[in-house]
Design a protein that fits this description.
Blueprint: E1 6-8, E2 13-18, E3 21-30, E4 33-40, H1 50-64, E5 68-71, H2 74-82
Parallel strand pairs: 4-5
Antiparallel strand pairs: 1-2, 2-3, 3-4
Length: 93
């Protein structure tokens, strides 16, 4: 399924609304590094690939803009482990 994901820069997050509920990936930006801190999907929406879609959108944005990512969020770490094509944009810890 495809989700309408937006980059809410004032709130430092990528987000989508599904069935009236907000799912999001939070980050902090330091210099050219997106520090991903939290992924949140309401329990009733879990299992639909929403977290993966949000994370992919964030990582593609980072790559497309010549930035780096530092995954602090456990979900984001796991996503990158499962998708090694993003290893080149991971900033050293």
């Amino acid at each position: 399924m495809e989700y309408n994901i937006s980059h809410n820069e004032p709130e430092s997050r990528f987000e989508t609304e599904v069935e009236g509920k907000l799912a999001l990936v939070d980050y902090r930006k330091r210099d050219n590094i997106f520090i991903v801190t939290h992924t949140e999907v309401p329990e009733e929406l879990e299992g639909r690939g929403i977290a993966a879609a949000l994370t992919k959108t964030l990582l593609d944005y980072v790559r497309d803009n010549g930035l780096k990512v530092r995954p602090v969020c456990p979900y984001t770490k796991m996503y990158i482990q499962r998708h090694p094509e993003y290893n080149d944009i991971v900033a050293g810890l």
